Amino acid sequence: MLHILSITVPIYLLIALGFLAGRRGWFDKAEMRVLGRFVIQLALPALMFQALSSRRVGEILNGSFLLAYALGSLAVMLAAFTWARRVKRRDITFSAYFGLGMSASNSGFVGYPIVVQFLGPVAAVAMALTMLVENLLMIPVALALADGGNSSKVWHATLARTLRRLAGNPLILSISAGLAMSVLGLQLPAPVARAVQLLANASAPVALFVIGGSLVGLQLHGKLRSVAAIALGKLILHPLAVLALLMLVPLEGPLRAAAPAFAAMPMLSIFPILAQAHGEENFAAAALLLTMLLSFLTISVWLWLLKAGLGWV
Question: Where, by residue number, does the polypeptide cross the bilayer (predicted)?
């Protein structure tokens, strides 16, 4: 467990530093957003491009990983949506975000910095695969559900609009470019590759700092039972579902441990921003805050379980 804490403690110290910087006014919200855009539009795309372009395509497009992660995530989303809709009698919009919060991880800002310390360079490949699932499957489905209370036309329009927006997403473009380089067997000139490497190296520390800053001002209020349920579902049920699916598919090596490790991360940092479009931003922000606070303990336990309990690392 001391080895696991040596991984998680520095990560959360950087998050705490970002929170302190935001709380003390060293960086305001606008400046934190600029740093966040740097990570999303430059640093993380550079990291994923570098990771994918430097590997054979057979190492990247792992069907077993994608199947287990996608089906596990969808199962959790469906279960959470059904529970909120049928048991708690919530409206379809709230239920959609309840499902998304339990089933979509913060793979780039929190997941990669932790998993790369735990598993090494393969974490970048796993991050690219999880982001494909999150951006091309989970988010579009959840947003379509959230808008789907009116008519099938609205449902399809929302889905199409979301997919069009994702087509220009730097993260998706970097994954596509990296895969193309891998398939064609091309390499960047050494000076360009070094520049990409330097940019990629900035992703983890800046991302963690931004996550800490984004927590400033969030409050735990209203719908506390639902907030606690979504937090525990995300941190426990989601990785458990992915772990169960991995027992049924042929996947060995570090990618096997990477799938539940990424699933064990808190929900997307943009969760409150997505929910704002339907007036659920306060609930989403409270859920994000509680999930982040609890995640230090749960992630440490999950990493220990994967390493010492299951022996997958």
Answer: 6-22, 34-53, 65-84, 96-116, 122-145, 166-186, 198-220, 227-251, 257-275, 282-305
CATH of 2-309, one of 3.40.50.980, 3.40.720.10, 1.10.10.10, 1.20.1530.20: 1.20.1530.20
**Residue 270: how many CA atoms within 13 Å on its side-chain side?**
14
What is the distance between the alpha carbons of residues 214 and 301, in angstroms, rounded to a whole number?
25
pTM, to two decimals = 0.88
The one-letter code for the residue type at 47 is L
User: How far is Cα 313 from Cα 258, in angstroms, rounded to an integer?
Assistant: 9
Q: Write the pLDDT tens digit of every residue in 187-200.
A: 899 999 999 999 99
Which helix H or strand E contains 289, and what residues bound it?
helix 281-304
Burial category of 44 from C-beta neighbours within 10 Å (exposed 0-12, middle 13-18, buried 19 and up)? buried
CB 162 within 8 A of CB 140: yes
- In sequence order, the 6+-apart residues with CB closer than 8 A to the CB of 197 are 50
